[in-house]
Amino acid sequence: MTMTNRGQNVVEPDPLPDVPSADRPRHIAIIMDGNGRWAQSRGLPRIEGHRHGVQTVRMISETSTEIGIEAVTLYCLSSENWKRPQQELDFLMHLLEQYLIEERRTIMDQGLRLQVIGRRDRLPASVLDEMKRTIDMSAANSGTRLVLAIDYGGRDEITRVVRQVATEVTSGTLGLHEINEQTIDERLYTAGLPEVDLMIRTGGDMRVSNFLLWQLSYAELWITEKCWPEFTRDDFFGAIRDFSSRQRRFGGLNVNE
After folding, report:
1. Which fold has domain 20-153+195-243?
2. Neighbour tally for 213: CB within 10 Å
3. Which tens digits make up the pLDDT trace of 16-31?
4. Which of 80, 140, 164, 204 has the fewest CB atoms in 10 Å of its CB?
């Protein structure tokens, strides 16, 4: 919905009319791979790929709001990425801080609700300050939940949950007979979010790279050779169209099979 010069509400046409809302994924997770390769293939420093990738993040968040996606989780920095050169890590931290500041207007204009998952203890204080400010500012928004996975690792998340459950059992606040899948779900970083329906990976690699290991159990996977900075709105729509055409059995059978 947009506003005319006279302040009247105008309903924008649906940019994805061939995919009914009920057939669209509620929660999309994205591995944003290929920034460095994209830059190097053009004779640019790797950090330029990360800079251009921010524009794709903006496109995804705005488009997700436009077509009614409930949640989008972006793999921004894995727990393994700390092995990269210090210069690149310093730039990534600077870029993240800059993003949290400069995208506030877009986040508020689009009604996005920002959430961050992953460890916090290795992030610079300046990044944590801007992160908290943006999260707090957008907390009352009711649009797409934009989830940034920063210093995130799927195995680390599950290990943390197991440790928490063990502590609760030892203290007597949780009984062994009470432990089930819901017990785990409620203690994950993604508690309260819809199940991940679609996982998109750019850059062509055919793996999940320690991303949302529990949450991707029944997600549909969509891989493209395109690197993240060249991933377009049409590519995004293509992934959603492909998702809508798939038969999701969740371990069962279709009626006609």
Report:
1. Undecaprenyl pyrophosphate synthetase (3.40.1180)
2. 15
3. 999 999 999 999 999 9
4. 140
